[in-house]
Structures are given as structure tokens and as C-alpha cells.
Design brief:
Chains: A mainly alpha, B mainly alpha, C alpha/beta, D mainly alpha, E mainly alpha
Shape of chain B: elongated
CATH architecture of chain B: Orthogonal Bundle
Largest sheet of chain B: none
Mean pLDDT of chain B: 84
Strand content of chain B: under 5%
Strand content of chain C: 5-15%
Strand order of the largest sheet of chain C: 2-1-3-4-5
CATH topology of chain B: Helix Hairpins
Shape of chain C: globular
Mean pLDDT of chain C: 83
Number of strands of chain B: 0
CATH architecture of chain C: 3-Layer(aba) Sandwich
Structural class of chain C: alpha/beta
Helix content of chain B: 55-70%
Oligomer: heteropentamer
Distance between the termini of chain B: 50 Å
Helix content of chain C: 40-55%
Order of helices and strands of chain B: HHH
Chain lengths: 293, 129, 204, 465, 533
């Protein structure tokens, strides 16, 4: 039963991940005044990459990098409950908690970074370095917000955190923390203005430089699932989770559309700029939010 | 200051004053003279001043010399001058001469090695030597 | 051969018929996905580079067809050689092509890639790209407009769906000696590493 | 068993020199070992009083109580060790004469219970010190000896003045008698006397303000002689100074002044050594530093602190002797005592000795120096002298800085010369370090001895007259 | 009443130090290493402050003499002076305590008798001792230099074992002996923030290092910073978190330093800029290092996360949100140097094969053991909890729940190590299978230089390894740049300069001629005569 539940969660994450990814491309095309590709375009892309005739690899670590990354994403999906009540779609959340998930979020990228590094391509490492440098500023506001939420709920357990929001969601109870977390969430989603990591021309796509075929396909799939996991995390932490699947879709959709629209209209920050921005505004918001707690 | 030392207070004070003048002269020599020989000579003078001061302050005109001869078989402070200072001074003089001799030996040896005996030119010791 | 739109349309339909007849369902599906997701490495070798930004942006929006630009050859399916190539540039073009994963296709953009175009008598540009790399689709004109390029993509989509053994990358593999000889003639001692060597690697 | 042996035996050995002029080094060893044995046999008969009386009060009195016994044993031990060290280098007439005389001088100094005798032994030890300084018979040696003589003569002038004033005022010279009658003297004269004695002994005991000659003298003399100066000479003067201080019941403010001088000695010496590159000067400064601490500790006139100070005298003497003897080995090899020689030789045993003795000197466990230092610190703390504790700890860091700079000879490197160390020397130095280690690990017996000694030192005049 | 000697720390340190010593058996300075072990024994089994101090100091000088065989003079001086400075502060505290207690035995110490000022002074002195040993920022110069200049094996001992002495001292003094003392809470507050500031600054410094062992040295400083922070809470669960982290950090640093020792043995190189691409030459070492850095970064799936989790929940329970934020920030920044370590050595450009040696096999044993323990702790995170709780219980704190070894409990939630490992394992295997079965076939490049490099063909002499310079960007970030630009060493150097100026002034007094000396003596006499009455 648990296995079925887990599979269902993965399927939902995978499906909605790609759907949202397609939606993102479509929506930003609309913002640009284009029609954009079909909703399934990203899915097609990933399938096509899976069925390329060949994929270049540089050795076993390069091979394992995307696998670790995808495993990380899978774990993230499994350890975040989809719903705030009932037995189903809770995944393995009772075996972990928010702190575990916060750390699981970096496990995949670090594993992938090993793969990138083993290719020996300097551009890949540049991208990884940018990612890690940005990460150190990106996580700070999110952590501050998460700390606030945990202290407020008195637990790091997702169930209790969502329970604590049954009367008033954290978004309204702690708007500053929400703001901090949201800005940092934008960065986690890798959207503009925080998308300097994979700058296509400047650093030749960054970490993804050497990945081709099925590796790229795996990376795309995990990215879709990972995005959904991040949406879930935000929904659970600040919007009290969802009572049923419909509410979940609605909430994640709203969050996603907001992130997409912001991403579509902002220019890219350089690494230094993004670090300085994140350290200043959202971090200050977070500190003030914690002080008001 | 030295009233307690018997009746020759004035004499004692005069001797004390004189000795301290000599002592001062000697100290001046010790501190100012540049020739090593002169310096050690000054030390001798200072010592002599001290001896004089000590012996002089024990001199009492009405007392006898502390010499045991017929009729005088034991030291009697009422009759004799205190003999101990004399013994002490004799010993000290001996020591002083010994030290002076040793000092002059060193000065001579030093002069033979360096060709000078001026204290302000002694620069063989110190850091980086 | 007939000219004009109608016979051309007809020929397309004929081809579609033949695809259906020769391929299994899975192969058809694979081909469909490949045709509808094309990652393009747009190599701006010559003046054709100016035509590509409009093609990709709001005015012509080629993303509708599933065409996306990528930065590195590893991820690309299609290489657009946009105009004349000097040997210096060609070296990089060949290298980029060789680093792409199969199946991979080349679009030659503009007349220069066909016969040298206005550089027909230049001693420092190549005249016929096909001597050095297998071109799958020529889009002629000097310069061709984005519409033409889009049509080229549509045509290439059909070719991909046809999954014929005539595809350029198969040609390059099977007739490598020919291409290599031409490259060596052009570059002399400064020739690139051999394609076979690089890709005769083990299968993990 | 007579206390006179400690003075007469060496003098006898000196007078009979022509009988065995070829074997002076052996005689020296035998003599010193005999004296050491004699000193050790006195353990159970303390306190001992010996009078060579003409007629009271005209008598020469020797007193051996707990404190002086401790120092006497130490002195004979150090003399034995140094003479054993020199055994290998054969007959040396000048060294024999000077060192034996030094033995006479320092033994007499601590044994004498009579101020004039103290003066005589003061002079004897001074003269032998001048001789020891000049042993090398080169420009440095004579220059150093001359400097020493100028300063020493100055000191003896003041000592003599003090003694004369005492005798003029109260007519006695026996220390016990002086202690009884000292209060009768007019206060201003009292002060003058104390000051003269302070200048006289202070110069010789190397206290701050009066000790600016020390580094030059150590530098001028041989390293092995340095061990005698450092372990015997300055300590005996210091002992007499404080013996008199305690007996004469000086005022608390004067004790405080002595403590201040001690602290200044310590600070100035350690800072001076910080930049020095001449190892003999460094060791001289280090000796000054230890004297400063000892003076500081003794100035509190507290039983526990005085015991700790005595302990420090003992451990410092042994450690310094080991260091100076090791330095002597180096100096004989390199004909230099610049601190760079420590990095130029390869002799693991010798390096180990230097390191361990240095650690003891610094007061680092588990060596005996640590016990002394810890006792001093805890003693100071129990007197609530936290400033002194802080000062000692802070300045000890400076001490560590220069001592460990010498120890960088431990580093491996090129250009190292293999240095041969004889077995006898290894045994000797090893014995000293083992002594330090042993008393560091089992300090109780030594501490008890020191406590008893401190009690007798502070207890005033307990010798019945 | 007091059985602290039978603790995890003592056993841990003994076991591990022996382990590291094993490969050293043939070395010349074995005696000194044994002495070091002995000093640790004395430290842990002490029953009086004097004995404790003996162990402390012996540890200092025996390690100094071991270090002396390889380090520069300036480093040695720094090492011994900082250590002695800390030791003397400890000695000062001991003397102060003696002044009030009249005894140095543990059992005679009753901190409730101390007046507040004395307790605070003792606490400050002990802080100096602890901070110096732990390398709190400003007092950390000696750590970095000595770690990087020690022999590679000794660096492991230094980092894995000796760096924990400060923590031990803190626990013994503050949590056992002076528990009843009326220490000003502000002091602990300052200590907590010092710890976390240290860890942040050290983390950034670590990122900008080019030398492997300097990076790890700063990393050690940062990790010990957390422990200091958490200890400053003075709570039972915090103590357990700190001890757990101590355990984990010991394992990690042993693993990492031994790994680096192997690399140095193989390549004879110390800098990232000269290394790279070792993965295909030494894949086992690579895997071991990866285990080490993942644990160091505190990620789940390896033991490193357990202690981080405990630290975070302890801070949460105390509601120290800002402190926790800072700790987590520093912890997240650590990913950068973790990656730099593995990239700089193992990934990136290939090495020149010709100059490689063989790594001693004995170096693998400590690494394998540490790695195995880290994995085991990930699976059974509650395994050492019972052991750690013993200490806490002995000190009067409530024990942690360890009824299920798979689950690490804390007041703020729990996690199941087995579930994490299992889920990851299943996902990993499944995805690997998926990738293998995919239509696309993986082809390994024959020539490792066949990278996509803008159409260029790099040659073997092309420098592709400039990724070792990662972290350079930090110099451009306005709030990090000053941290990287300023060194506390300047301060200490200036202090030393002042001391030597003063020294020159004073030592010129000692070169005066005899006449001047007598003149000064006479002056002193006169002055005292005139003023002394």
C-alpha cells in the first residue's frame, strides 16, 4: 500500500512537474508576446533525449552524477507530504522532517556537481561554483523562514507544522518570513533573476555543459519533480498544506504562476549581485520576521 | 647622629665628615675616571675612607690600646678600646689588597691584549659580539 | 519534376504514407518525438547569424515547432551553419558537429554553404559545406528570410520522421574516410583529432 | 661532624695543591662528592651550631639550619656535577682554584652567622667569581672580569659600610644578636644600614636596578662557569639577603619594595632576552627572570610562598646547570655561543636534554620546575595577589618565546653537523634531567623539605645563643 | 561522585589515536607520539586540576616537538606561544580556584562558594584556554599554519584529536566542576556568538584557500565553532549534540586528513592548483573522500547529518533563532569548500601520470574504518546516543531516547536513518536501472580532453583546471571581502613587534659599561635614601 502511495506521489510529481514546466514555457512565451510551444513540449524534449542514439560519458562518476541528483529529487518528493491530513499521499514524511528535507535539497546538486567535475570541463565547474556561491546566500533567508516556522509550530515535523496553520496560515501570520522564503524560493526555482548558474553563452550552460542524451533527460525529469517538491514545500510551510489533491494543485499552481511571472520580467543577476541582494533584502526580512516572532 | 659612641663626639663627627668627603672624592673617581688604573685606585681610596671612618669612630682618647701585656689579661671595654674593629680592618685591608692585586693583574693582561686600558673603549662584550 | 506548392504538398503526403508503411509503432513514436523536439546549435559562421534571432523570438517564434536553442553541442540535435565558412571557422564547426550526439542533423543556411555564394572566388572560404560535413537540409537564399528557415525546419522534421538511412549522421559515420580526406586536404597538418577515435569508446 | 669541614676541606685541598697538581680534576670531584656526602649526613642532626670562639661575643659562628642545609646540599651537588663534567677535560689549575674557592665562598656565605664573616665569604666568592670570569684568558674574559670587579668592588664598599654602621651602632656582629638589638638603632640610621646592605647584596644577587652588568659577565665567562654563577653565586647572595631581611624584621613597605624590585627584575630580564641572540646572554637573562620571581615570592614572607621560592631555587639551579653544561658542549664544538648554533648541530640526545631542561625552566609539567611554579602561583593566589599571578603568567609567555626559539634546533635540516657527546656527559646530563623529572613526578619529599626550610627561614632566630 | 573519565571521549580518542599511530610505527618520533597519547591519558583520567594541567601541557609540548620536525620556525613559535598562552590562562584559572578552594582536587571544588567576580574571572580565563585550543577566530593563526606544515599524518592527529581538547576542557570545567558557579550568562552568550562567527569566517577563509590542509584546517576551526556555540547553551541536549558532533568531526577529519596524506604520498603536491583528475587514478580514495565531504557538509545519508540535526534541534528548543540561522548559513557555505576539496584533488584536469607514487596501504585502514562508521551511523543514528547520554545523565541531564536505533529522537522531531538510506538506495538503483535500460547508449570518450570547449580542441598543456580557483568570487562580495582581506595575524605580528622594540630598549640597559652600572646603583641608593624614609 505504501509502495503504491509512493509511486503515485512520484507520478503526480513527475506529471505536474512537466505540466508546470510546459506551462512555464507557455506562459513566459505569452508574456513575450509569442504563442510558445505546446504544454507537453518539455515532456517531448525529455523523451527525445531518452531516445537519442548515444549519450557521451566521461566515466563512472559522470554517469552516477545525474542518478544521484535524480535520487535526491525523488527523496525530496517522498519526504514531503502532499496532503495535510489522512493516510494517503503522506509518503515517507513520518520518517523525516523539515530539517531532513532542507538538507536533502542540496544532496542532489552536490552529487551532480561531482559528475560535472569529473568531466573535466571548466565551464561545468564554473556553473557549479556559481551555484554553490549563490546557494550560500539563497539558503540563508529560506532557513531563517523555516526556523521561524519550526519555532512557531514547536516542531520540525511537517504534520505538526501544517496543523499549526489550521486557523491562520503562516503566510498571514508571518508575512515577513513568507516574503523572505518566497524570494529565496524564486532562486531555488532557478528562474530569473537568479538563473546565472546555467548562463548559456557566458559559461556554456554551466553544469549541464557536458550532459547529453539520457543524462540530460534524467536531469530534466528530476528538475521537473524537484520543482514540484519545492512548490510543495512552500505550500506546506506557509499555506497550511492542502486538504485534497484539488487544493494542492490549485495552491501550487498559484505559487507557480507567481514565480513564472516574476521570472519572465526580470533580467538576470550576476552571482555577486544575487548574493548581495539575497543577503540584504530577504535576509533582513527574515531577521526582522524572526525578531517579531 | 653618633652621640652614643662615647665622649669624643666632636672628633668622631669630624672624622666622619672627613671620611665621607674622601669617600665622595673616591666615588667621583670611580664614576668619572676613564683609566682603569685610576678607577681601581679610587676604589682603594674609598676603602681607605671607610677604614678610617670605622677606626676613627672607635678611637677614644681616654682608653688604652687593646694590647694584652702584663697586668692586662682580659679585654675590658671600660679600659681598652674595642679591639674587634682593628682586627676587622686588618682583615679587610688584606682582602682589599688581594682584590686590588687581582684587578691590576687583569688590567695589565687586558692592556697587553688590547693596547689600551680605558673603560670607555671597552666594547668587547654585548649583543652580536 | 513539377514545381509549385500543390505538387510539393502532394509529395509530402506521399512520404508520410511511406513512413507509416515501413516503420514499427515504436520507431514511429521515437521519430515523432525527435521531430517535435529539436535542440538547435546555431553556429553563426556568417551573415546568416542575423536571421536567427528573429526566428527564435516573438516575431516568428519557432519554439512553436519545438525548436529551442541550446548552447553546447552535447545537447544539440541540429547544427545550423549560417553562411560562409572560413577554414578557421570550419574547424570549430566540425568539432562541434562531432561532439553532438546522434541522431544529429545539419542545416546549411544561405547560398554560401551550397556553392560559396558571393564568396565563390574567395581563397579563404570553403565553397561546398557538404564536402566536409553531411548537410541534411539546405536553405538557400542570400540571405534566406526566417520564413525560409522555418520551412527548412519543417522539411527537416519530415526527413527526421522518415528516419531514412540517408540521414547525414549515418553518412558521416559510414563515409568518414571521404569527409576526413577532404578535411585533411583543407587543414593540412592542423587537422582535428579523428572522429572515430573519439567515439569508438566503450559502452557503459 | 663539624660544619667547618665545608670551608676547611676545600681550603686544605687548595693548600695541598702542589702534592697533586697533575690530578686536580680528580681531586676536585672527590672533594665535592665528599662535601655532598657530608652535607647529606647532616640531615638528621639539624639544626647544627658550630662556634670557633675566642671569647663571646668574639666568635665565629656557623649555623646550619633547614634552609641553609637545603642550599648547601644543592651547592655541593651542583659543584659535584660541574666537576664531574670537567673530569673529561683534564687538569685545569685555574678552574680548580677558582671553583674550589667559589665553593668555600658560597658555603661560608650561607653558613656564617656573623656579619663580618659573611663579608669575608662575600669577598672570597667574589674573587673566585672574578677568576672564573677570566678563565678563558682572552679579551672578552678580561674585559668581563674587569667590569665585574668594578661592580663587585662597589658592592663590597656598600656592604662594608652597612656592616660598619651596624657595629658602630650596636657593637655586635652575630646575626642573632643583631636581630635582637636592631630595633634599638635610630630609625634613620636603620634605614641607611638596610639600604647599604641592600645595595651590597642586591648588586651581587642581581636585582633590578643593580643588575645591568650580569649579561656581560655571563657572556664573558665560559658556559660551564655560567652554571656556577647562576646556580650558586646569585642564589647564595639572595639567600643571605632574605635571611637578613627576615631576621631584621623589615617593615611591610620595605618587603613590598623588595617584591616590586623582584617583579621588575623578572619583567626587564624576560623582555631583554626576547630579542637577544647570544645564548649565554639569553640564559643570563633567564636566570635574572627566575631570580625576579624568587625575590617576588620571598618578599611576601609567607611560609608557602617561601617554600615555593626555595623549590624554584633548587629546580632552577639544576635545570640551568644542565642547560649551561649542554651549551658548554656546543660552545666547545662551535667556538661560538650565538643562538644560531642550536640549529646547526645534530645530536638527538643533547637536543632532548636542552629541550627538557628548558621545559623545566619554563615551569612546564611534568618537570620539577612546574611544581615550583605552580606552588608559587597557588601561594600568590591564596594571598590574593592576583596581579602577581597575572604578571608571572603573562611574562612567562615572553620567556617561552625566546626559549622555544632556541629549541627550533629540533627541526631537521641541511647543513647540520653531527656532534659527538661522550657517554659520561650523557649520563651526567641525563641524570640532571631525570632528577628534574623525578622531582616533577614525585614532588612531595622535596616540597616537604622546602616547607621545613621555609619555616626555619621565616621562624627568625631560633639558634640559641 | 565523579566518573567522567569513563567517557566516550576518552575511549574515542584513545582508539582513534592508536588507529592513526598504526601506520606510524616505524617512524623516528614514535616516542613523542606515545608521549602524546600518555598526555591525553593524563588529561582524561585526571582527578585534580594539577594533573589536568599536566596532561594539557604535555599535550602541548609533545605535539610541538612532533611538529618541529617539519614546520617552519615562525609556525612553531606561533604554535607553542598560542598554546602556552592558553595553558597559562588555564593555570591562572587554576591558581584563582586554588585561592578560594585551597585544594586542586576535583572533589574539593565547590563552585557555589565562589564570589561572582571570581567565577567570572575564572570563566574568562578558561574561555581563553578553550578558545585558543579551539582556534576561535583571532586566536586561530597557529591552527592553520601548524596543520598545513605538520607531516600529513600528524595533521590528522592534530585535527581529529588534539583540536577537541578545548571542548573536553570546557565540559570538564563548566559542566562538571563549576556547574554551580554563578557565571554571568552574558559570557556564555558571547561565547555562543563567538563560536558561530568563527565558523562563518573560517568557512569563508576555507573556501579561499589553495592548500588542501589549510582548507581543512579552517574547516576544523569552523566545525569546532559550532561545537563551542552549542556548548554555550549549557543544556543536556546541547551537550549531547556537541559530543555527537565531536565524534562525527573526529571521524570525518581523520578520514579527510588521511585521505590527503595518501594524496600527498602519491603526488607529493599540496595545492589544488597543482592537483586534479586523481579520480581515475585512485577511485577508492575518491569514494572515501566523497563520503568524508558529504558527511562534513552534514548531508543526510551519512553520519554528518545526525549531529547537525541534534545541533539544530537543540538550538530550536532553546529558541535561538538567529544563532541557528547563522549556524545554518555557515553550514550551507561549507558546501563550497567541500566541493572545492573534492574537485581540486580528484576532478577536473588529469595529472601527469609519470610523477605518481603509490600510496601506503596502511593509510587506507583509518579511512575505511571512519567511512564505515559514518555509514553505520547514518543507518543507525541512535547508536552512540546511549553512550553519549551516559555523560549527560552523569552530569544530571535527561537522556535522549534511543529505544529504536534507526530513529534519532529530539524534542523537535525525529528521523529514521534506515528509511532515508533505504529510500535513497531504492531510488538510486531504480534510476540507475532506468538509465541503463534507456534507448540511448552511453559512449565513453576515448580522449579525456574531448570536452565541449566552444569548438576548441584543448591540448594536454591547456590549463583546464582553473576551477581550483573557485571561491575567488567571494572577494567581490561586499560583506565577505573584508573577512578575507583582514588577517588577525597582523595584530599578533604588531604585538610581537612592540615586544621586541621594548626588548631592544631594555636590553640596551644590559649593555651599559661598568661605570654606568655603578652610577645607576649609586643613583638608586641616593634616591632611596632621599625618598625612602
Amino acid at each position: 500500500m505504501l509502495l503504491l502511495d509512493l509511486l503515485l506521489m512520484l507520478l503526480i510529481a513527475y506529471g505536474f512537474g512537466f505540466l508546470y514546466y510546459g506551462l512555464y514555457r507557455n506562459l513566459s512565451a505569452r508574456v513575450h508576446g509569442r504563442f510558445g510551444p505546446s504544454l507537453a513540449q518539455s515532456f517531448s524534449d525529455s523523451i527525445k533525449l531518452f531516445v537519442k542514439e548515444e549519450s557521451t560519458t566521461f566515466g563512472w562518476m559522470f554517469y552516477l552524477g545525474p542518478v544521484i541528483m535524480a535520487s535526491g529529487a525523488v527523496l525530496n518528493v517522498l519526504f514531503i507530504p502532499f496532503l495535510n491530513q489522512g493516510e494517503s499521499l503522506q509518503g515517507l514524511s513520518s520518517y523525516g522532517n523539515l530539517i531532513v528535507v532542507l538538507y536533502l535539497m542540496v544532496l542532489g546538486p552536490l552529487g551532480n556537481a561531482l559528475g560535472v567535475g569529473s568531466s573535466g570541463n571548466p565551464f561545468g565547474v564554473m556553473g557549479v561554483t556559481r551555484g554553490l556561491t549563490r546557494l550560500l546566500a539563497l539558503e540563508l533567508p529560506f532557513y531563517l523562514a523555516a526556523i521561524g516556522v519550526m519555532i512557531d509550530a514547536g516542531s520540525a515535523d511537517f504534520g505538526i507544522i501544517m496543523q499549526a496553520q489550521s486557523t491562520q496560515s503562516n503566510m498571514f501570520a508571518h508575512p515577513l518570513l513568507f516574503a523572505a522564503a518566497f524570494i529565496s524560493f524564486l532562486g531555488f526555482m532557478g528562474k530569473s533573476p537568479f538563473d546565472v548558474v546555467g548562463a548559456p553563452q557566458e559559461v556554456y550552460s554551466g553544469p549541464a555543459t557536458e550532459f547529453s542524451g539520457k543524462f540530460l533527460a534524467l536531469l530534466m525529469s528530476q528538475s521537473a519533480m524537484f520543482s514540484f517538491a519545492k512548490l510543495l514545500l512552500m505550500v506546506n510551510l506557509f499555506w497550511g498544506g492542502a486538504d485534497h489533491l484539488g487544493e494542492l494543485v490549485a495552491k501550487t499552481f498559484v505559487l507557480f504562476v507567481a514565480a513564472t511571472f516574476i521570472g519572465s520580467v526580470y533580467a538576470r543577476f550576476s552571482t555577486v549581485q544575487s548574493v548581495e541582494f539575497l543577503i540584504r533584502i530577504p535576509t533582513l526580512l527574515g531577521i526582522v520576521g524572526l525578531a517579531l516572532l | 647622629m653618633f652621640d652614643a659612641f662615647g665622649s669624643s663626639a666632636l672628633l668622631h663627627q669630624a672624622i666622619t665628615l672627613l671620611c665621607f668627603i674622601i669617600f665622595g672624592v673616591a666615588l667621583f673617581g670611580v664614576l668619572v675616571k676613564k683609566n682603569l688604573f685610576n678607577i681601581f685606585l679610587a676604589f682603594s681610596i674609598a676603602e681607605a675612607a671607610l677604614f678610617l671612618f670605622f677606626i676613627g669612630n672607635h678611637y677614644a682618647a681616654q682608653l688604652q690600646a687593646p694590647i694584652l701585656f702584663e697586668g692586662l689579661s682580659r679585654f675590658d671595654p671600660a679600659v681598652m678600646v674595642d679591639p674587634l674593629p682593628q682586627a676587622m680592618i686588618l682583615t679587610t685591608i688584606v682582602i682589599g689588597i688581594a682584590v686590588l692585586a687581582l684587578a691590576l693583574t687583569f688590567v695589565i693582561r687586558y692592556y697587553k691584549l688590547t693596547g689600551h686600558m680605558r673603560i670607555d673603549e671597552m666594547d668587547e662584550l654585548g649583543e652580536d659580539r | 519534376m513539377d514545381e509549385g506548392f500543390i505538387p510539393y504538398q502532394q509529395s509530402l503526403e506521399d512520404e508520410e504514407q511511406s513512413i507509416k508503411s515501413t516503420q514499427s509503432v515504436i520507431e514511429q513514436a521515437i521519430a515523432w518525438f525527435r521531430a517535435h523536439s529539436m535542440f538547435v546549435l546555431a553556429y553563426g559562421t556568417g551573415c546568416g547569424a542575423i536571421e536567427m534571432p528573429p526566428t527564435f523570438t516573438s516575431r516568428y517564434d519557432i519554439e512553436r515547432l519545438g525548436v529551442v536553442g541550446v548552447a553546447t553541442p552535447r545537447q544539440a540535435d541540429i547544427l545550423i551553419v549560417s553562411g560562409y565558412c572560413s577554414p578557421k571557422t570550419l574547424k570549430r564547426v566540425i568539432r562541434s558537429y562531432e561532439q553532438m550526439s546522434e541522431p544529429k542533423y545539419i542545416i546549411g543556411l544561405g547560398s554560401c554553404t551550397i556553392n560559396g555564394g558571393m564568396y565563390w572566388d574567395s581563397y579563404n572560404t570553403i565553397k561546398k559545406l557538404d564536402d566536409f560535413l553531411p548537410v541534411d537540409m539546405y536553405v538557400n537564399g542570400c540571405m534566406p528570410r526566417p520564413e525560409a528557415l522555418i520551412e527548412g525546419f519543417v522539411k527537416l522534421q519530415e526527413k527526421i520522421r522518415a528516419n531514412s538511412s540517408e540521414a547525414g549522421y549515418i553518412q558521416y559515420r559510414t563515409r568518414y574516410a571521404h569527409y576526413r580526406a577532404n578535411q585533411e586536404r583543407l587543414f593540412g597538418t592542423q587537422v582535428q583529432p579523428r572522429y572515430e577515435e573519439n567515439f569508438a569508446g566503450m559502452n557503459l | 661532624m663539624s660544619l667547618l669541614y665545608f670551608v676547611l676541606l676545600p681550603l686544605l685541598a687548595l693548600f695541598l695543591m702542589p702534592l697533586y697538581r697533575k690530578h686536580l680534576h680528580i681531586i676536585s670531584v672527590m672533594l665535592n662528592l665528599t662535601l655532598l656526602t657530608l652535607a647529606l649526613t647532616c640531615t638528621h642532626t639539624l639544626p647544627m651550631v658550630e662556634r670557633v670562639a675566642v671569647d663571646l661575643p668574639f666568635a665565629i659562628t656557623f649555623v646550619l639550619e633547614r634552609a641553609s642545609w637545603l642550599l648547601l646540599t644543592l651547592f655541593t651537588l651542583i659543584m659535584s656535577l660541574v666537576s664531574l663534567y670537567h673530569l673529561r677535560y683534564g687538569n685545569d689549575k685555574a678552574l680548580f682554584v677558582a671553583s674550589t674557592m667559589l665553593g668555600v665562598g658560597v658555603s661560608g656565605l650561607i653558613l656564617s652567622h656573623d656579619l663580618f664573616n659573611i663579608y669575608i665569604f662575600f669577598e672570597i666568592s667574589s674573587i673566585s667569581a672574578y677568576l672564573l670570569t677570566a678563565l678563558n684568558q682572552d679579551v672578552k674574559a678580561y674585559g668581563g672580569a674587569i667590569r665585574y670587579m668594578i661592580v663587585g668592588a662597589f658592592a663590597s664598599l656598600f656592604l662594608l659600610l652597612g656592616i660598619m654602621l651596624i657595629y658602630l651602632s650596636i657593637g655586635v656582629l652575630d646575626i642573632g644578636a643583631i636581630a635582637e638589638r636592631f630595633g634599638l638603632i635610630e630609625p634613620r640610621l636603620q634605614f641607611l644600614i638596610l639600604l647599604s646592605l641592600f645595595i651590597g647584596f642586591g648588586i651581587k644577587a642581581e636585582l633590578f636596578g643593580l643588575n645591568f652588568w650580569v649579561a656581560d659577565i655571563y657572556q664573558a665567562s665560559r658556559s660551564s662557569v655560567g652554571s656556577l654563577f647562576s646556580a650558586l653565586l646569585s642564589k647564595s647572595y639572595l639567600f643571605v639577603l632574605f635571611h637578613l631581611t627576615y631576621l631584621l624584621h623589615v617593615s611591610p613597605s620595605q618587603l613590598f619594595f623588595l617584591g616590586l624590585i623582584g617583579a621588575l627584575t623578572f619583567v626587564a630580564a624576560e623582555f631583554s632576552a626576547f630579542k637577544s641572540h647570544e645564548s649565554k646572554r639569553i640564559f643570563a637573562f633567564s636566570t635574572l627572570g627566575q631570580i625576579g620571581i624568587i625575590t617576588l615570592a620571598l618578599s611576601y614572607a609567607d611560609a608557602m610562598l617561601s617554600a615555593a621560592a626555595l623549590m624554584l631555587i633548587l629546580t632552577h639551579a639544576v635545570a640551568k646547570t644542565a642547560l649551561f653544561l649542554a651549551l658548554d658542549l656546543l660552545e666547545r664544538h662551535f667556538h661560538s655561543s650565538h643562538s644560531t648554533i642550536f640549529a646547526r648541530f645534530h645530536a638527538p640526545f643533547l637536543m632532548g636534554i636542552i629541550a627538557l631542561a628548558g621545559l623545566s625552566l619554563l615551569g612546564i609539567p611534568p618537570f620539577a620546575g612546574f611544581v615550583a611554579k605552580l606552588s608559587i602561583l597557588t601561594g600568590l593566589a591564596s594571598l590574593e595577589a592576583y596581579g602577581a599571578v597575572a604578571l608571572i603568567l603573562l611574562i612567562s609567555l615572553i620567556e617561552a618565546a625566546y626559549l622555544f626559539r632556541l629549541l627550533t634546533g629540533f627541526r631537521q635540516g641541511t647543513g647540520k653537523e653531527r656532534l659527538y657527546v661522550a657517554w659520561s656527559h650523557k649520563l651526567l646530563l641525563g641524570f640532571m634531567v631525570l632528577l628534574l623529572l623525578g622531582f616533577g613526578l614525585m614532588p612531595e619529599p622535596l616540597l616537604q623539605l622546602c616547607q621545613a626550610a621555609a619555616a626555619s627561614m621565616l621562624g627568625g632566630n631560633h639558634v640559641p645563643l | 561522585m565523579f566518573h567522567f573519565e569513563a567517557t566516550l571521549l576518552a575511549h574515542l580518542f584513545f582508539g582513534l589515536s592508536l588507529l592513526v599511530i598504526l601506520p606510524l610505527l616505524r617512524r623516528r618520533d614514535l616516542v613523542l607520539h606515545l608521549l602524546l597519547l600518555l598526555s591525553l591519558g593524563i588529561l582524561f583520567y585526571a582527578s585534580s586540576l594539577a594533573t589536568l594541567f599536566i596532561g594539557w601541557e604535555m599535550m602541548g609540548w609533545s605535539s610541538y616537538f612532533i611538529l618541529a620536525s617539519s614546520a617552519r620556525v615562525a609556525t612553531l613559535q606561533r604554535y607553542i606561544l598560542f598554546n602556552l598562552g592558553g595553558a597559562f590562562a588555564l593555570l591562572g584559572a587554576i591558581a584563582l580556584l586554588y585561592g578560594f578552594m585551597g585544594s586542586l582536587e576535583y572533589r574539593d571544588i565547590d563552585a557555589s562558594l565562589l564570589p561572582p567576580w571570581a567565577m567570572n574571572a575564572i570563566a574568562l580565563l578558561l574561555f581563553v584556554a578553550v578558545f585558543v585550543k579551539s582556534g576561535i577566530i583571532g586566536l586561530h593563526d597557529w591552527v592553520v599554519d601548524s596543520y598545513s606544515e605538520a607531516t600529513p599524518l600528524f595533521s590528522a592527529i592534530l585535527s581529529a584529536i588534539l583540536s577537541k581538547a578545548g571542548i573536553y576542557l570546557f565540559i570538564v570545567m563548566f559542566m562538571v566542576l563549576l556547574k554551580e558557579g554563578a557565571t554571568e550568562p552574558l559570557l556564555f552568550e558571547i561565547m555562543a556568538w563567538l563560536g558561530v562567527i568563527t565558523s562563518i569566517v573560517a568557512t569563508f577563509k576555507a573556501i579561499s584557500q589553495d592548500e588542501m590542509r589549510r582548507l581543512l584546517a579552517y574547516s576544523s576551526i569552523a566545525q569546532i565553532g559550532y561545537i563551542i556555540t552549542i556548548l554555550a547553551l549549557m543544556q543536556g541536549f546541547a551537550l549531547e549534540a556537541a559530543l555527537y558532533h565531536t565524534l562525527i568531526h573526529t571521524l570525518i577529519k581523520l578520514l579527510l586528513f588521511m585521505n590527503i596524506a595518501s594524496i600527498i604520498a602519491i603526488t607529493q603536491k599540496e595545492r589544488f592548483s597543482e592537483l586534479g583528475g586523481m579520480i581515475y587514478h585512485a577511485p577508492v580514495l575518491f569514494l572515501l573522500l566523497v563520503i568524508g565531504i558529504i558527511a562534513l557538509a552534514g548531508m543526510p545519508l551519512l553520519g554528518g547529518f545526525n549531529s547537525k540535526f541534534l545541533i539544530y534541534t537543540a538550538l530550536l528548543e532553546e529558541k535561538r533563532a538567529l544563532l541557528l540561522g547563522a549556524v545554518m548559513f555557515s553550514s550551507a557555505s561549507a558546501f563550497l569548500y567541500c566541493y572545492k576539496l573534492v574537485y581540486g584533488i580528484y576532478l577536473g584536469q588529469r595529472p601527469q601520470e609519470a610523477s605518481l607514487h603509490v600510496s601506503p596501504k596502511s593509510y587506507y585502514l583509518p579511512q575505511l574504518l571512519s567511512a564505515a562508521l559514518l555509514v553505520l551511523l547514518a543507518l543507525l543514528p541512535s547508536l552512540p546516543v546511549g553512550y553519549l547520554s551516559v555523560i549527560g545523565v552523569e552530569l544530571g541531564f535527561a537522556p535522549l531516547d534511543d529505544s529504536n536505533l534507526f530513529i534519532l529522537q529530539s524534542a523537535f522531531g525525529s528521523f529514521h536513518g534506515g528509511a532515508l538510506m533505504g529510500a535513497f538506495g531504492v531510488a538510486f538503483v531504480a534510476l540507475l536501472g532506468l538509465l541503463q535500460l534507456a534507448h540511448s547508449k552511453a559512449k565513453k570518450v576515448k580522449d579525456p580532453l574531448d570536452i565541449s570547449y566552444c569548438g576548441e580542441v584543448p591540448r594536454s598543456e591547456t590549463n583546464l583546471h582553473f576551477g581550483y580557483g573557485m571561491g575567488y568570487e567571494l572577494h567581490r562580495i561586499s560583506f565577505i571581502a573584508p573577512l578575507l582581506r583582514h588577517h588577525s595575524r597582523v595584530l599578533w605580528d604588531r604585538l610581537s613587534l612592540i615586544a621586541s622594540d621594548f626588548s631592544a630598549l631594555l636590553s640596551s640597559l644590559y649593555s651599559l659599561s661598568a661605570q654606568h652600572v655603578t652610577l645607576l646603583a649609586l643613583l638608586l641608593f641616593t634616591l632611596l635614601l632621599l625618598g625612602g624614609q
